[in-house]
């Protein structure tokens, strides 16, 4: 059985951008803080930031990461 990685779940939730997704991302980051590949996440969020609706997605992720 295959599951999405924490990183992929975070990317999907960042794109969805709902308030509940922000809370989910914060909780995933807290619970997995020592094993999250933030460079992988940033790489994909940078790609998605080229879409006008997602311009601030990387900045938003960094903000959640700092919390």
User: In terms of per-residue confidence, which ranges show pLDDT below 50 for 5 or more consecutive residues?
Assistant: none
Number of strands: 0
Query: What is Rg?
Result: 11 Å
Portion in beta strands? under 5%
Q: What about the largest sheet?
A: none
Helix content range: 55-70%
Number of helices: 4
* Total individual domains: 1
Shape annotation: globular
Helix and strand composition category: mainly alpha
Average of per-residue pLDDT values = 95
Element order: H for helix, E for strand: HHHH
Distance between the ends: 33 Å
Question: Please, could you describe this protein's structure?
Answer:
With 67 residues, the chain is mainly alpha-helical. It has one domain (6-66). The chain contains four helices and no strands. It has helices at 6-16, 19-31, 38-48, 57-66. Helix 1 (6-16) packs antiparallel against helix 2 and helix 1 packs parallel to helix 3 (38-48). The longest helix has 13 residues, at 19-31. It is globular, with a radius of gyration of 11 Å. The termini are far apart. The model has no long low-confidence stretch (mean pLDDT 95).
List keywords for this structure.
67 residues; mainly alpha; globular
Indicate the topology.
Elements: H1 6-16, H2 19-31, H3 38-48, H4 57-66
Task: Give a short summary of the structure.
With 67 residues, the chain is an all-alpha fold. It has helices spanning 6-16, 19-31, 38-48, 57-66.
């Amino acid at each position: 059985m295959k599951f999405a990685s924490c990183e992929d779940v975070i990317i999907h939730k960042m794109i969805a951008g709902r308030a509940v997704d922000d809370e989910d991302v914060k909780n995933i980051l807290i619970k997995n803080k020592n094993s999250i590949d933030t460079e992988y996440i940033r790489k994909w969020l940078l790609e998605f930031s080229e879409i006008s609706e997602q311009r601030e997605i990387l900045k938003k992720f960094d903000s959640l990461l700092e919390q």
